[in-house]
Amino acid sequence: MSVAPHAGSRKPSTRIERAHWAAGRSHVVGADAVGVACLAGPVLAAAVVMPPRARRIPGVRDSKQLTRAQRERLFPIILRRATAVGLGAASVAEIDRMNIYHATNLAMRRAICRLHDRDHVLIDGLRVHRFEESVGPYTAIVKGDARCYSIAAASIVAKVVRDRLMDRLAPRHPHYGWERNAGYATADHRQGIEEHGITPLHRRSFARVRAVVLGEQLPLDLDDATPQPVVERHSVLLPA
């Protein structure tokens, strides 16, 4: 396992992938997770294999730098171009039981392990204890979704899938604005929690949600979710 050094903001490149392709490793997996800081809903990860030396998809970058419309436009293109795409999720129950760090790693493992052909894995973030035992050789890249093309593509896939899931869940719990905030700690979501309490889809292990359960008062601008490190009950393998 290796860790790539941090770099400043830039468009993602295929530099790291090209080095692996040149060494004969054609199945290079990029993986990322989304929803880590959310107050509600699962954490979801995607793993993507892009074909070696294929033409890059214009506009692919860290999903956080794109609008929802841009992500939705890129999503089907990535699915068509990718050799394979795997999804993995960690449920709210798993998040509360093992904490968000371990749940996020679990989601990443589930997504990656959906892909049977993988010569090397590139993940966003820092090294993960014993990760190589389940996924094989990998490199952890700080700000990988902003630096690495395959990871950026994975971040878009994960974000679109999770946003659509929260859209479907929103009508069942209409007081929290999930169709707008995807479960993140926005003002309308926090207000919904304070006025209507929590749902089974809220993460009780998170400070703001836990405060409602315990009847505590917290400031509205509290930053609940400091991500700590990525799951597979609902893993899906999408067609290339």
Please state the average pLDDT score.
87
What level of helicity do the residues show? 25-40%
CATH class of the largest domain: Alpha Beta
β content, as a range? 15-25%
Q: Biggest sheet, strands in spatial order?
A: 1-6-5-2-3-4-7
| Structural class by secondary-structure content | alpha/beta
Superfamily (CATH H level) name of the largest domain: Ribonuclease H-like superfamily/Ribonuclease H
Shape: globular
CATH topology (level 3) name of the largest domain: Nucleotidyltransferase, domain 5
Uncertain stretches: 3-9, 220-240
For the record, the CATH architecture of the largest domain stands as 2-Layer Sandwich
Count of beta strands: 7
Distance between the termini: 28 Å
Number of helices: 10
Structural notes for this entry:
This protein folds into two domains: 2-167, Ribonuclease H-like superfamily/Ribonuclease H (Nucleotidyltransferase, domain 5, 2-Layer Sandwich); 169-214, no CATH class. 40% of the residues lie in helices and 15% in strands. It has ten helices and seven strands. It has helices at 15-22, 68-81, 92-98, 100-113, 131-135, 144-147, 149-169, 178-181, 187-196, 207-214, and strands at 2-4, 28-34, 43-49, 84-90, 120-124, 138-141, 236-238. It has a seven-stranded mixed β-sheet.
